[in-house]
Amino acid sequence: MGTDVFDIGVIGSGGLAVAIAKRIEEIFYGHEDTVVPKFYIDKFNQTSFGVDTAAEAAKSRLVVLSMPKEMFHDIVQKGQIQLSEKQGVLSFIESLTIEEHMAHLSSPNIIRAVSNVAFEYGSALSAYTFWRGCSDERIDDARRLLNFGGDYLLHTTEDKLGRIGSITNTLLAISVDVQMQLEKVVKRGGFEEDTVRHIISSTLASSANISNFNGSRAGLLEQILRENPDAKACVDHVRGSGGIEILERMLLSNTSKATTPSQSTARPATATKIGAK
């Protein structure tokens, strides 16, 4: 076995926990000598890497938590997560602050993160923050794990973490729904299914790249709408549907509930790519 053994234990329940486990499982088959997974996840324990108890998964160098807050409290109260000061915790538990984690776990190496189920496909955007006393080694472990789920990581403060999670999950849901609806409509136009998928995926990919466009996106949109009356009618309808206002209200609500723990940090960080030490 390699010298840099990445020992990962995933404890949790729900879609994100399963997505993380599936992605780690895929990464394993190419890094068998360095990646050692252990999974304690509802309905996922019968896989090759499933373990019988949360306590067994919690012996790992990096312990990943993705579950409802109630499940976390139940596991902790049963004494199933006993950590040393050298272990790291990467937690995706919503609404459980770093300080609340530290009240129940003995390790100072607490990293909180948000992501989405696109983690399974290596295309998720993840954001994270960490306790000021975290060791650089465990922070690197967390970044390495997050890079399994996608190349782009956003280092932020704890008070912004929940809002970033809301934005990414909402935009992902909208994007997937739009893609499904467009595929149905275009297919009715008499195109073959492969052609439909190519048209939709290529167009949505090009629109995503425009988010990095240095010129005037408003000017570009105006040109498209001016030359395509049907596109203008659709955009006008979407603008009048109220979806953006719902997102804005949700974010404002999250802002009013946000906390700003004094011990979390937003010092600059560089992501560690898969396979790097």
List keywords for this structure.
2 domains; disordered C terminus; alpha/beta; 8-stranded mixed β-sheet; elongated; single chain; Rossmann fold
Walk me through this protein's architecture:
- The chain is an alpha/beta fold and 277 residues long.
- It folds into 2 domains: 6-157 and 260-265, 3-Layer(aba) Sandwich (Rossmann fold); 164-256.
- The protein is built from 10 helices and 8 strands.
- The protein has helices at residues 15-28, 54-57, 69-77, 98-104, 136-148, 158-187, 193-209, 217-227, 229-239, 243-257, and strands at residues 6-12, 35-41, 62-66, 88-91, 109-114, 126-131, 153-155, 264-265.
- Strands 1, 2, 3, 4, 5, 6, 7 and 8 form an 8-stranded mixed sheet that branches.
- Helix 3 links the parallel strand 3 (62-66) and strand 4 (88-91).
- The relative contact order is 0.11.
Write the layout of secondary structure elements.
Layout: E1 6-12, H1 15-28, E2 35-41, H2 54-57, E3 62-66, H3 69-77, E4 88-91, H4 98-104, E5 109-114, E6 126-131, H5 136-148, E7 153-155, H6 158-187, H7 193-209, H8 217-227, H9 229-239, H10 243-257, E8 264-265
Parallel strand pairs: 1-2, 1-3, 3-4, 4-5, 6-7
Antiparallel strand pairs: 5-6, 6-8
Helix pairs in contact: 6-7, 6-10, 8-9
